[in-house]
Every structure is written in structure tokens, then in C-alpha cells.
Amino acid sequence: MKEEAVLLDIRHCSKSAKEAETVINFKGCPLKCVWCHSAIARSVKPELVFNDQNCRECYVCVTTCDHLVHQIDDQGHHIHQSACQLDGKCVRNCSFDALSIIGKKYHLDQLWHEIEDDLEVLSKSGGRITLSGGEPTSQLKYIIPLLKKLKEAGINTALDTNGYTRTENLQTLIPWVDLFLIDYKETDPFRHYEFTGVYNQLIISNIHFLMEQKQNVILVCPYIPGYNDHQQHLEGIASFCRQHPELKVKVLPHDPLHGYGSNSHDLADDFTQVKPPAAATLNEWKSKLAAAGCQLV
Ligand code: SF4
Ligand code: SF4
Questions:
Q1: CA nearest ligand 1 atom 3, residue
Q2: Do domains 4-42+104-296 and 47-102 have the same CATH topology?
Q3: Separation of alpha carbons 205 and 208, rounded Å
Q4: Does domain 4-42+104-296 correspond to CATH entry 3.20.20.70?
Q5: CA distances to 64, 129, 221, 241, 270 from 26, in Å
Q6: Is 69 in the pocket of ligand 1 (CB under 6 A)?
Q7: In the predicted model, is pLDDT for residue 26 greater than 70?
Q8: What's the pLDDT score for residue 200?
């Protein structure tokens, strides 16, 4: 297979876990969530990432790079991304951890080789491989053969998706996915647009579609204090549960430390002060959902 995937990373399963899980994180995501710490995950392409807080302007990268990507002047350190060949020479020579390349290309057989040791553990434990990201459906041509190969090897599979993909894509994936973890971030379409850059109609119709197709679905609901912790959204989640009694709900508290190579620069300006919810507040939210008939996991 010629297709190459661009991965953020592979999080290998623990050999001692009762139900082991290996997570393959794909690069690329069509959403721009204001709470996302992983802006570098948005583009499908590998990228040179610069951390200006670590840079000492030592000029090593300027002299190392053959492609004139780095320039340092009175205004600071500039990077001409479009000229970068991603050969990593500057990254290897920077002594201050100010440069990195995010995103690595894999052919299917290379990826298979990387996860081969995990497969035995996953088989024995009844664990699973989860395709996540970024957004795994942004690399559909790659994940279809990967999922097929996993199912042929008898491995359980899960797709962790933001749900913003054509319904036909999900339909194509159904035979190869045992569990869909699908995000539901906000019920009001205008607020959803404000928070993520897209309206939520497609996501909502995809959730209904998967349930109508009798799929195993967990609705993953991030809880973002001051953003989506309002009654209309709680009612929106509960409404899904009333319509689809088999649907499960996982509440995910906002975690300011979660992300890839994250730092506060990745966040929208007005979001940097948002703290994780207090345990009592989160429990109250979960209790209300349970009282409204949601099956929490
Ligand atoms: S080598 Fe590293 S520390 Fe030196 S100028 Fe380049 S990025 Fe900055
Ligand atoms: S990765 Fe290579 S081409 Fe890109 S900036 Fe560094 S040295 Fe230059």
C-alpha cells in the first residue's frame, strides 16, 4: 500500500493492564476548538515547531539549515515554514530544546511493525486499538485498510472522532469499528460554531445515524466551565439518551495540561484562565445527567 499516514504519536498499551489499550493519534483536524491545546495537530502535514520561550538565539539553527528557514533579527526569530524540508538537522543541533518536528509518516507495514508487540497483549487481554488524534477520519484512505487488518487479526477497534465527517465515511467504517467514541461539545449550533469553527448539525445527524445503525457508541462530552456547562447543553445530551437508550455518555473534565507539545500559545486569548472544574461541580453535572436518564461510563 502506497498510502502514508501522518501520526502525532503512538501510545503503547501497558502490558500489565487488565484491558489494555494502544492509541494511535493521527495528525489533522478540521475543527478549531477554543479549548484545544493542540493547534499543531490541526494540519495533516508534519511541521517544524518552535518554542520561543526556550530559544537563546544562539544562531546554531541559522547556520545549520541548508534551506534558509531560520532568520534572527532585531524583531526576533522568524521561521519560513514553507521552505522547511523537515530533515531535522536544526532540531538535532539545538541544545535548548526549542525545536521539534511534530508528525511522522508511516506506511501501513511500518505502523504494523511498530504495534506488533502490542497486538499479542491486546489479544490476550481483550483490549483494543483506538484510532484518535487530531481527527482520524481526516486520513480516511489510511485508516480503512488499517482497521480491516486489525479486525482480520482479531483485535478490538475503537474510533475516537469529533464526528465532523461525511456520514458515508462513517458508514464505510462501521464493519471495522467495534466502538465509536464521538465528541459532543455543545448543543446550541451558534455557540458550537463560536467554540469550534463549525456548526453541529452534521455531528448530531452522525450520532443519530450510528445509533440507528445499532452501533456501540459512547458520547464523549467535554465539560468546559463557563462555556458548555449550561442547562440547554445538559438537556441536549439528555435528549440523545432518551431517544437512544443504548447510548452511553462519558463526561470529560477540561484539562489545561492535556495536549501535544502544548503551551498557552496554542489557546485562544480568553481561554487561558479557564481552570478544571471542581470535583463537586463535575459530580453535580454527572448526577443531573444520570437523573435525566443518561447511562454514564
Ligand atoms: S539553535 Fe535553538 S536556541 Fe539556538 S537559535 Fe536556533 S532554536 Fe534558538
Ligand atoms: S528541519 Fe531541516 S530544512 Fe527544516 S529548518 Fe531545520 S534544518 Fe532547515
A1: 55
A2: no
A3: 5
A4: yes
A5: 30, 13, 20, 29, 28
A6: no
A7: yes
A8: 98
Residue 210 Cα distances to 171, 207, 250, angstroms: 8, 5, 17
Amino acid at 296: L
Torsion of CA 54, 56, 57, 61, to 10 degrees: -60
Position 250, amino acid = K
Q: Say yes or no to pLDDT of 259 above 60.
A: no
Task: Tell me how far the alpha carbon of residue 86 lies from the centroid of ligand 2, in angstroms.
Answer: 5
Work out the angle at residue 246's Cα, subtended by the Cα atoms of residues 241 and 247, and round it to the nearest 5 degrees: 50
When pLDDT is cut at 50, 70 and 90, the band that residue 172 belongs to is very high
In angstroms, what is the span from residue 55 Cα to ligand 2's centroid? 16
Q: Is the CB of 97 under 6 A from ligand 1?
A: no
Q: Where do we find the cell 526576533?
A: 76
Using the 8-state DSSP alphabet, how is residue 34 labeled? T
Query: What value does the CA radius of gyration of the chain take, rounded to a whole number of Å?
Result: 21
Give me the architecture of the 47-102 domain, per CATH.
2-Layer Sandwich (3.30)
- Taking the centre of ligand 2 as the mean of its atom positions, its distance from the CA of residue 83, in whole angstroms, is 8
ω before 133 within 30° of 0 (cis)? no
pTM (2 decimals)? Answer: 0.89
Each residue's pLDDT tens digit, 116-155: 999 999 999 999 999 998 899 999 999 999 999 999 999 9
Distance from the alpha carbon of residue 95 to the mean position of ligand 1, in angstroms: 7
Report residue 282 CA to chain centroid gap. 22
pLDDT given for residue 137 in this prediction? 97
List the chain domain ranges: 4-42+104-296, 47-102
User: Closest ligand to 70 CA?
Assistant: 2
Q: Residue 86 and residue 84: Cα distance in Å, rounded? A: 6
Q: How far apart are CA 49 and CA 39, in angstroms?
A: 11
